Amino acid sequence: MKKFLVVMVSILALAAGSLVMTSAADAGPNPYQQNIRSTGDWFTFSASMGTFQYYDYNLGHQYWPYLMWRDDQCSAPLGAGDGYDGMMGNSCERHDFCYRNNSWAMADRHWMKASCDNNFYDDMEDKCNSYAFYDWKASWCHATKGVYITAVEWGGSIDNYPAGYITPWCNWWICNADT
Amino acid sequence: MTAGTLLLVSCSSEGAASSSRILELLPRTPAQIENMQSAVEDHVAECMAESGFAYVRSDSGRSRTDESNSEYSDLSYATEFGFGFVNSPRSPVPETEASSSRDFASPEERLAYDEALLGPSGCGPAAFSEIFGPMQALMEQLSEPLEEIEARVSADPEFVDARQLFSNCLANSGYPGIRDRGELRSVFEAEFQSVMDGATQTVRQSSQPTLDEIAAVMETQEVRQFAEREIAAATALVECENEHLANTYQRLFLRHERDVLKDYPQLDLPG
Asked: B222 near B86, Cβ under 8 Å?
């Protein structure tokens, strides 16, 4: 149980831990934010997972330093192999990327979160499709997907966090799930 | 793959259809997950009403069911996307920001609402634990026997023979020395990295490439040719699996599941 909760806590940390709120976003994105948004949008919503991973691991930091790339918040607890514990690691990484970068520029934070969560679901679905239909891990993956998407949808209200504040916030799931 | 086909189903030697007792316990289909999410919403609405708040149900989870890529079978996914390195199913880029913000008379009212919904003792966390907590506990219980079954299937002489046939099938399709899906995927993952390195050097004009330049990378001949190769490989993989591994795996899984479950009498399984 503890092991599973560690994974869940990590997922919830993604859902909650890095939402960036800016007062400028309330007034509409400036050109800098628009650039972040267009690039962040492309890597989140248009690029294949393989393409996203390539730039996330390799050239993203160099080419687009204004975007927030890997921070190991997700991959450290989840990435210890491609077993079932780690099966959602890449989906989780892009979900984190989506929250971190798109929250700069999207005026409607609820819409941003819903868009990121929907994309997270698609990425998890894609991961589940990578298992053979007869493999028990495919069933496991779909069940896990249901837990994760519900967890992030209930990961907290983004209205609680003031403008310009990068949370390291902690709701009861993150702080108390293992107690 | 269609989620509804995931349950391991096979015909036993007696000819009667049988299915995995363990996997039957996992909610896997969109409908099953939706039911659980709907139950969470029910709990939240009731709890919020008791706290004096009108809660508007969220349908975000359920609305995506028809839009997800769950309609792909193994083979249709492979023939369209390969392993998904260059292309994969993508939802449309959201274009409009339809506000879903709640209206509150004051900031204090909003904070009170959020506290009731998402605070440490809030209705949301309580409902999530109520509905999904038992499932998490169950999955934790099931992981060990599932891995034991997997190990026994992999070591079963029948499966070893089937895997050899699968490997031969792939070799005949031009992919020698592959023992399982993960190995072939890894080969192409490494190649994708190399192809992208080359294509990026070919196209890149600026220190901070524009999206047009990145799109140009994905349209280079080497990337497009790689996409064709990954589709061919993934298609051959699924065809060889379906021909040589699928039935054997399913049959052996059920056989070893029966044996392994004897070692876990504490599991309360149906059937």
From this structure: no
pLDDT single digits (tens) A97-143 = 887 776 555 555 667 777 888 888 889 888 888 899 899 998 888 88
Task: Give the total number of structural domains in chain A.
Answer: 1
> What number is the ipTM of this complex?
0.83
**For residue B9, what is the DSSP state?**
E
Structure token digits, residue A34:
């628009």
* B224 membership: H or E segment, kind and range: helix B221-244
Between CA B103 and CA B48 the distance in angstroms is: 16
CB contact under 8 A, A176 and B120: yes
Domain range summary for chain B, segments of one domain joined by +:
3-261
- Tell whether the torsion through CA atoms of B115, A113, A50 and A136 is positive or negative: positive
Chain A positions touching B73 (Cβ under 8 A) are: 133
- CA A87 to chain B, closest CA, distance in angstroms equals 13
Question: Is B13 exposed, middle or buried (CB count within 10 Å of its CB: 0-12, 13-18, 19+)?
Answer: exposed
Three-state DSSP state, A88:
coil
E-assigned strands of chain B? 9-11, 17-19
Contacts with A45 from chain B: Cβ below 8 Å: 90-94
Which pTM was predicted? 0.79
Pick from B118, B206, B220 the residue to mutate for testing the A interface (most A CBs within 10 Å).
Answer: B118
CATH (domain of A154) = 1.20.90.10
